Structure formats: C-alpha cells, structure tokens
Amino acid sequence: MKQVVAMALVLWVLPAFGNQDVEINVNSRYTVEDVQVQAKNKSRLSPALLADIQALAGEKLDHKLLDEIGKRIRSALRVHTVVARVARGSSPEYVRVIFEARQRPNNFDLSAPRFLYHSKQGWSGVL
C-alpha cells in the first residue's frame, strides 16, 4: 500500500518538473545596441564576417552566437584569443558588445654576442 501511494505521488509531481526550461539565460532579454571590434588589423576581416558582426546590432543578446562569431574573428585575424565583452548600453535594456582580439605575448629574445675581425688585430668580441 505504501508503494502504491508513493508511486501515485511521484506520478502526480513528475509533470510539474518536466515543463521547465533547461537553461534560462537572464542576459537574453537585453538588446544589442552597438558592436565593436578592437584589433590592430581589422582590414583582414571579410565583408561577410563584417556584415554578420553588424547584423548583431538590434538583435537580442545570444552568447552562443557571440562565441561563434568570436571564433570566426579569431581564425580571420590569426590571433591567440578573441574575447566578447558585454558592456552597459546608453539606455536600459541595451548593451554594447566589444570583441577584443588579443595576441599571444611575443617573449622571444635572442641575444647574440658581437664578433669583429680586424686583419691586424684578429678576432674580438663582446659578451
């Protein structure tokens, strides 16, 4: 009898949990006001990619789409990372999206000793 009551209770409560959205993104209620790309060589972006970037303006904020466009910018500019920052817009319910292209730090340093040769003095060098 206890098992029947428990089973009825589970079957009665189960539909209430089945209708919930799996993932609710609070930021999806904001509208993109402006989109910027901060990179040194923006001229390498294709016209189709630039059109997709500008098409974000006026649309609802979608982080999956921002990640996809960030990957496309990264491959077009050949940079280490592209970060999509979301900043507050000029009015409520609006945000600005800023794609920042970050290069890998170039820490390559080669220190070569200087050697000189003089016909009368021979070899000399500085370490």
Tell me what the structure shows.
By secondary structure, this protein is of the alpha+beta class. The chain has a domain at 22-102: Roll (Ubiquitin-like (UB roll)), CATH 3.10.20.310. The chain has helices at residues 2-18, 47-55, 63-77, and strands at residues 31-38, 81-88, 94-102, 114-118, 122-126. Strand 4 (114-118) and strand 5 (122-126) form a beta hairpin. It is elongated, with a radius of gyration of 29 Å. The mean pLDDT is 84.
Topology readout:
Elements: H1 2-18, E1 31-38, H2 47-55, H3 63-77, E2 81-88, E3 94-102, E4 114-118, E5 122-126
Parallel strand pairs: 1-3
Antiparallel strand pairs: 2-3, 4-5
Features of this protein?
alpha+beta; Ubiquitin-like (UB roll); three-stranded mixed sheet; two-stranded antiparallel sheet; 127 residues; 3 helices; 32% helix
Structure summary:
The chain has about 130 residues and is an alpha+beta fold.
What percentage of the residues does DSSP assign to strands (E)?
A: 25-35%
Shape: elongated
- The CATH topology assignment of the domain at 22-102 is Ubiquitin-like (UB roll)
> For this entry, what is the oligomeric state of its chains?
single chain
- CATH arch. level architecture of the domain at 22-102: Roll
Helices and strands: which structural class?
alpha+beta
Number of helices: 3
Largest sheet: 3 strands, mixed
The portion of residues assigned to helices is 25-40%
Number of strands: 5
The average pLDDT is 84
CATH homologous superfamily assignment of the domain at 22-102: membrane protein fhac
| Strand order in the sheet with the most strands | 1-3-2
Amino-to-carboxy terminus distance: 92 Å
Runs in which pLDDT lies below 50 for 5 or more consecutive residues are: none
Radius of gyration: 29 Å
